[in-house]
């Protein structure tokens, strides 16, 4: 069984890569598609074009789909625990494969401070949207990268401490693709992967036979 994980596509926002994302969904072969949050950018007042609808159709095309709700698509929170048109909506997805326990989340729950104030975030997103349209500048990616550089090590340690009961932990949210592998004090092999995003990096994760790999999609 081949699973593919993508995160932070931000469909409907000003800078998401519609053509590349659609090509990826049509070209890749897989048995299960796991959407690790921020797939549709409701915070950015999304504009749904015909291409957006093509992408959504490709997502739900004859395969098992797991939709992990993130902070930009939290309008789907009311659907958590339900199966709608073949899409299973969850906040966390876990499974065991080849004796290894996997956990996948979006990752926003590990943030601290104002990000959890929904009213503030929505007001800020409206302002960001106006600035991005007016100046053709991807403010969201710039701000995310700035915060990663400032808090990266502390954030990763904080995340790993909260997930030491699994062998492989995968998330998105930070738009920072990376993979870490280490051996813990009990000689267990542990893996942390951030799936990155489809605004800047076009990265994704594959899982086959209990092995998780971070990869970058190439149009060629």
Helix content: 25-40%
CATH topology: Purple Acid Phosphatase, chain A, domain 2
The computed structural class is alpha/beta
Strand content: 25-35%
Key descriptive features of the protein:
single chain, 220 residues, alpha/beta, Purple Acid Phosphatase, chain A, domain 2, five-stranded mixed beta sheet, 12 strands, 27% strand
Structural notes for this entry:
With 220 residues, the chain is α/β, with parallel strands linked by helices. The protein is built from four helices and twelve strands. The protein has helices at residues 18-27, 50-59, 118-135, 139-161, and strands at 2-6, 32-35, 64-68, 83-84, 87-90, 92-97, 100-105, 168-171, 178-183, 189-194, 203-208, 211-216. It has a seven-stranded mixed sheet, with no helix packed on it. A hairpin with a 5-residue loop joins β9 and β10. The longest helix has 23 residues, at 139-161. The chain is globular, with a radius of gyration of 17 Å. The protein starts with a strand and ends with a strand. The model has no long low-confidence stretch (mean pLDDT 83).
Structure described in brief:
The protein is of the alpha/beta class and 220 residues long. It contains 4 helices and 12 strands. The protein has one domain (2-216): Metallo-dependent phosphatases (Purple Acid Phosphatase, chain A, domain 2).
Task: Please specify the SSE layout and strand pairing.
Layout: E1 2-6, H1 18-27, E2 32-35, H2 50-59, E3 64-68, E4 83-84, E5 87-90, E6 92-97, E7 100-105, H3 118-135, H4 139-161, E8 168-171, E9 178-183, E10 189-194, E11 203-208, E12 211-216
Parallel strand pairs: 1-2, 2-3, 3-5, 7-8, 8-10
Antiparallel strand pairs: 1-11, 4-5, 6-7, 9-10, 11-12
Helix pairs in contact: 1-2
């Amino acid at each position: 069984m081949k699973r593919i994980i993508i995160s932070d596509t931000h469909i409907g926002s000003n800078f998401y890569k519609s053509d590349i994302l659609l090509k990826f969904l049509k070209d890749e072969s897989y048995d299960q598609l796991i959407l690790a949050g921020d797939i549709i950018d409701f915070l950015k007042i999304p504009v749904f074009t015909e291409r957006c609808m093509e992408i959504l159709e490709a997502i739900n095309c004859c395969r098992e789909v797991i939709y992990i709700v993130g902070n930009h698509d939290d309008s789907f929170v009311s659907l958590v625990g339900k199966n709608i048109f073949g899409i299973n909506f969850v906040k966390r997805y876990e499974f065991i494969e080849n004796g290894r326990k996997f956990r996948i989340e979006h990752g926003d729950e590990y943030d601290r401070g104002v990000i959890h104030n929904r009213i503030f975030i929505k007001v800020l997103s409206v302002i960001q949207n106006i600035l991005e349209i007016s100046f053709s500048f991807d403010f969201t990616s710039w701000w995310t990268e700035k915060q990663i550089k400032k808090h990266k090590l502390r954030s990763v340690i904080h995340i790993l401490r909260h997930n030491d009961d699994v062998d492989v932990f995968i998330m998105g949210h930070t738009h920072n693709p990376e993979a870490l592998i280490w051996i813990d004090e009990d000689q267990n092999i542990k893996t942390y992967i951030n799936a990155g995003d489809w605004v800047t990096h076009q990265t994704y994760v594959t899982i086959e036979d209990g092995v998780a790999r971070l990869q970058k999609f190439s149009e060629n």
